[in-house]
Each structure stands twice: as structure tokens, then as C-alpha cells.
């Protein structure tokens, strides 16, 4: 191939295939296996399309979709850090920054900057689009846990108060989704999926 | 939950989790297992972001991304039809239409219509965005086959002339990507991954 630019782009698209082998703590809804980051990212894009009306500030759905599509690519090198793993969170930012440098720089410079920009925006959680994207990313595993009888909550001894504490920011970003999360947590306590 | 609209939306998001269990003919790039439709759809969204500059007509990337994100959901009911399976193609349209009715209508009516509209646009391949989305969907398995030593070509005895015949529309939609496909097919013949 003579086109050097296309060569880099294809190399990047080949490299990110590895995201399909980065497994998360959550199970698929049918409970048969752990979910991987690529299919999780796809699911978040669908959530963005379906749940955007609940954002308390007007958001740009297309921009949210782009962010959720790229947000986990760094985990190809940095691995998935479980949201309640305090130790893992200590060096998460550093590991992911290094991963972003290696992975996104496979692309031509202009595109590396564009995609790194989307990832940084997501990580900083400052813009209203990034906040909404992050709310979906936090909400998705809660729904998966609910429908798999609390699988990863039970496996890691996560308590309901921790889920509420860790995710309370959603109450500002999308109040109705926060209400929904509270409802399914209450139901999860009643059903014995999680302790209060 | 009292919010009937949100209830339908969550039910839909739960139902489409099944796309993660619809497996395709292509292997992951590392050859370890078959790819599923959810991670394939994510990969196409990344391809749209990275390769849009090769579209011969000006396209709306965000619209292309939305289309590729939803385009395979019907396969939850209809299954994946291998692109060189002539028998499977006979009733593909009918099976997928029925699937679209059941799956998208889990959503509130306005959203069912919106997402059905994206799916229909993709299927009809008439708009320039749909043509480009379709070109990516055709190109992705060719790249996967190339990097997995022609796995599904060999498994099904697919010949190079069939790949070219079946996908020649890409020459108009994205000439440089078509050139790339021709290059890797030629290399695949030389390496014994596929017969001419
Ligand atoms: Ca398909």
C-alpha cells in the first residue's frame, strides 16, 4: 500500500480490535459470560440515542455517541479498573494517559488529536456532553447487575450505599435516571442482590 | 417504576443486549473466536470516524455512526446471514422486517419510528450516508479475513472474484478504500488465503 495515511488508519483499526478482548466485571444480561469493552461501548451509544431526553441540560447526542465509542480504547493497554477498586484507581489516570499516547498516536496526527480530545473530554467530565456520557457509563453496569441478580456486587461485596455514594452525580445530570437507579437498588435490596 | 416511557426504553436496552450473542462468520483479528454483532457495530462506528475522508460524496459522519450502531439489531431475531449465502438471502429481507417490527416497537412510538428509519435508510442504500455505512460494513469482514489468513473465505470456499463482484459498489462510494481492498485481495491470493 502506497497511501501512508491510510496505512496508519488501518493499523489503528486493526489495533483497536483488541478492545473486544478486554473483559469487564459485569455479566451479559443473560448471565452467560462477562461483557467486553467493545460491546459495552456499543451499548452506551444505544443508551445515548434512547435516553438523551433525560439530560437536565441540552446535549449534543452525536457528540455524546462519539465520546462513548472512544472512551474505553485506552483499556487495551491499561485494563479495566473496577469502579469500586480503590487501589486500582490510584494509578488509573497515569496508566490510561500512557495508553492514550501509544494507541491514538498510531493514527495520523490530526486524527490522533481529534480522538485524544474526545477521550480527554470524557475523562475530565466538565462539559455537559461529557457529564451525560459519564452518567450512562455509570448507569449501565448498575442495570446489568440488577438483571444478573447482583452478580458483580455480590462477587466484590459492594453495598447499596457505595453505589449511591459513587454515582450521586447522576442526580444532577439526569434526575429521572437517578430516580430509576434508586428504584432498582431498593428492589435489589428487597430481592437480596445487594446489602444496604 | 411509574414512568411508563422510561420503562419501555429500559426494556428495549435490555432486549438488545442479545446482540452480543449473535455471532458472525468473521474471527477477531487475533483469531481466537468469532466476532459478535455488537462489537462489530462498535468497530464500524470507529471506522466511520477514521475513514470518512475517503467518501466520494460529502457525508454526515454522525448520521453514518448512528446507522452502523443500529444496523444489525434486527439480527437478534433474524440471525446473521453470511454475505455469500445465496439461499439465506432469499428470505433475509422478510425475516429482518419482521424482526424490526418486534424489536423497535418495544420503544415508545416516536423512538421506534426514528430507529426504524435509520435501519431502513441503511437497508435501502440510497442516501450517500447509507452507501458509505454499507461500504464500511462490507469492508470490515474483508480486513478481518485478511488478518486471519482468510479464515471464513477458506471455510466457505469463497473466491477472490466473488469478493470483488459482491463489493464492487465500493469503487464508486470510496475509490481509495476500493483500491486498498484490491491490494489486500491480491496479497491474499499470493499468500494462499483465497483463490482467484
Ligand atoms: Ca449484517
Automatic annotation (TrEMBL), chains A, B:
Span of domain HD: 16-178
GO CC term, one of those recorded: cytoplasm
Alphabetic keyword roster: Hydrolase, Metal-binding
Phosphoprotein in keyword set: no
GO terms assigned for molecular function: 5'-deoxynucleotidase activity; metal ion binding
A Pfam family matched in the record: HD_3
Keyword Transit peptide attached: no
Superkingdom as given in the UniProt entry: Bacteria
Protein's name in the database: Metal dependent phosphohydrolase
Organism: Thermoanaerobacterium xylanolyticum (strain ATCC 49914 / DSM 7097 / LX-11)
Amino acid at each position: 500500500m502506497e497511501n501512508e495515511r491510510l496505512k496508519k488508519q488501518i493499523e489503528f483499526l486493526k489495533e483497536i480490535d483488541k478492545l473486544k478482548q478486554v473483559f469487564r466485571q459485569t455479566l451479559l444480561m443473560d448471565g452467560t459470560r462477562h461483557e467486553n469493552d467493545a460491546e459495552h461501548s456499543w451499548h452506551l451509544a444505544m443508551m445515548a440515542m434512547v435516553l438523551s431526553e433525560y439530560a437536565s441540560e441540552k446535549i449534543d447526542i452525536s457528540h455524546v455517541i462519539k465520546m462513548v465509542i472512544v472512551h474505553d480504547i485506552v483499556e487495551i493497554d491499561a485494563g479495566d479498573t473496577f469502579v469500586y477498586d480503590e487501589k486500582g484507581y490510584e494509578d488509573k489516570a497515569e496508566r490510561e494517559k500512557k495508553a492514550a499516547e501509544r494507541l491514538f498516536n498510531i493514527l495520523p496526527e490530526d486524527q490522533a488529536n481529534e480522538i485524544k480530545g474526545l477521550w480527554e473530554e470524557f475523562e475530565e467530565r466538565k462539559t455537559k456532553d461529557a457529564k451525560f456520557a459519564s452518567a450512562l457509563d455509570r448507569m449501565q453496569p448498575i442495570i446489568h447487575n440488577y438483571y444478573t441478580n447482583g452478580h458483580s456486587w455480590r462477587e466484590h461485596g459492594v453495598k447499596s450505599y457505595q453505589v449511591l455514594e459513587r454515582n450521586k452525580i447522576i442526580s444532577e445530570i439526569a434526575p429521572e435516571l437517578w430516580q430509576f437507579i434508586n428504584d432498582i437498588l431498593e428492589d435489589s435490596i428487597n430481592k437480596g442482590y445487594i446489602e444496604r
